[in-house]
Structure prediction request, 565 residues.
Amino acid sequence: MIADEIKEKILNHIQEHFSEEEVSAVSSKFQIEIPDSPDKGDLTCNIALMLGNITKSNPREVGVEIGNMLEDLDLIRSIEVAGPGFINIFLNHSGILKIISDILNKKTISKVKKAKKIQVEFVSANPTGPLHVGHGRGAIYGDVISKLLEKKGHQVQKEYYVNDAGRQIDILTASVFLRALNIEDSIFPESAYKGKYITEIAKDVKLQVTLGLDEILTDLSEDQEKKIDEIISRLKTTSEEDWSSVKKVSLDQVLSSIEKDLKNFGVTFDNWFLESSLLGENSKINSVVQQLNQNNLIDERDGNIWFKSSDFGDDKDRVLIRADGRQTYFASDVAYHKDKLDRGFDEIINVWGSDHHGYIKRVEASLEGLGYDKNKLFVKLVQFANLIKNGSPVKMSTRSGEFYSLEDLLSDVGSDVARFYYLSKQTDQHLDFDLDLAVSSKKENMYYYIQYAHARISSLETKAGLSDFNIGDVSEDHINICSNLIHEISKYPNILEKTCSNLAPHLLIFYLKDLASVFHNFYNDNKILDKSESDTKAILLITHAVKEIISDSLELLGVKALDVM
Prediction:
């Protein structure tokens, strides 16, 4: 790519003419960007400003020196030092053709020099019911950032952490158990899981012992949360074999449903890690507690076993083991993250809901306490997605049984539209997803607007009877005719690099919208098929680059580009 060639030549030059300390200060930070207007060049660089600031030299003089050196490159027509020291680079005919050629040949991003082994853990919703649309944003984001990391050349493993132990699974099991006992709705516990899926699971349950509801449901607490806990205790003790059987059937069916829904949205996992694998007499949790104790980081208070996480910047210490011997969710988290790093990952990335922000510091503290590098952990927080249908927000509560599921979303808008809109905004910002707009044919529908550009170009190529293109057909005149389009095309490698480096797929969507807008304006201003055969072929080669960018970008987002709409 041209930008890489120019950057390498600049680096070689400053290594010869500036000190090692000065080179180190700028080598990884200076950028070669695309100016906001073609009048300011095809490329621009801020290296002179940076060097001038460090060396206390005149940036314009530094810029002129570097510009004179760059003019030796075959693909450069001229150099202009503008403003306080920006180096604006104007490419010649061959340089412009190389930009287009690189895109057509998919030479749009540089692989990392040293690939890392990276794990991305995402979704990890409690397996207590079907996934609702609130889980969808994190699912799609986790899937796509895995693709972005692979695009840069890293080795990526996608993992789902299955919370198959603890109170929520007990509530699920009790809910199915009670439905299998044909409990009436009027006395079904308020704190149990409701919904048709519970009744459907119960149909596959075969109880060994006949239980009377009276012995399960009498003399219970008025407090609804205590009430469900008392029911759980009675069901476990009354029929231990049935409890285990119902729990297995319930978990298997819910996990199967989750896996199926995610697969329908194009999301698959390399590994499903069970929380229960951390438990047991010789458990990984006990091992972690022992190791922290050896490091003088355990404190026993009120019968509880505490980790001194405040020693590592957490706002307070955290309980690992309760007085009754039960492990906390935090204890599982500590053992799980230790297990991740023990598997040899160079980086571990967690995609969490924004409500888990407070967990970051305590998990970092636990890694430090165990002697690991906390900087290997990266947490990407995802804000909630508010789905709007018929002008009203949709419900997302699993416990009530009344919620809009991922399966419902697939039925209403399809996988591609859902993926696109989940990714259309920065993940740390709230997303209002208007389901009615998403399936409309309005210009305001970004998905439609971008896909329509791809389909329009496909239609032009079909009508022209063209499938093969020759870069040599593009003359200076054609470049002038398509200057705005080519300028927007040339931004793609830079945008793609930023998207991958920052794990920010919304940048790619914003760019595609701008590219589609420039193309649609060009299409409306030019009757492409009415031009001479040579002009038509040359212009369609340039618009084919637009089509390739849209297709490649959508593929990276897990969306299929449309040839017909």
Observations:
- The chain has a mean pLDDT of 93.
